[in-house]
Amino acid sequence: MTRTYTFNAASLNTPWAIGFDSLWDRFHTIESANSVSNYPPYNIVKHDAEHWSIELAVAGFKRSELDVVMAEGVLTITANTNNTDEDVEYVHRGLAKRAFTRKWTLADDVVINDASLMDGVLAIKLERIIPEEKKPRKIEIL
User: Fold this and answer.
1) Nearest to 54 by CA among 95, 94, 106
2) Which domains are present in the chain?
3) Cβ atoms within 10 Å, residue 140
4) pLDDT at residue 127 in the model
């Protein structure tokens, strides 16, 4: 038997959970945006505890057709196609070159180091940077 559970964000309206409503709104927005399609396929690679890469298969897209934007903790990758090959007659078209938007919510301490496009793969390198005040420190006992 499979049970389906739903999360009720209204249950967080308690005196000890202040300011989390926008966080749950972001989760819902990202989840609904990504659940529509699984195009294009992607990988998330964990290199170590502080470094990751997101790899998107974007064969056929030019750099000028791809946008990578980080705003309010959300990484958004968008592809706009120009469809300039209307005069081309395809016998078979296996490379799906259609517009898309993919979004990921990043933690507050994760930054984007760079983005590169090589061999049809868009790679976004991420790094967790922990501020000094959040790192563990040894407390001297007096």
Assistant:
1) 106
2) 39-134 (2.60.40.790)
3) 5
4) 93
* AA letter at 69: V
The answer to whether residues 55 and 105 touch, using CB atoms and an 8 Å cutoff, is no
pTM of the model: 0.68
User: For residue 56, what pLDDT is reported?
Assistant: 95
5/20 Cα distance (integer angstroms): 20
Instruction: Tell me if 50 sits within 8 A of 125, measured CB to CB.
Output: no
Amino acid at 32: S
Reduced to 3 states, what is the DSSP secondary structure of residue 95?
coil
The Cα angle at residue 31 between residues 30 and 33, in degrees rounded to 5 = 65
Cα–chain center distance at 74? 7
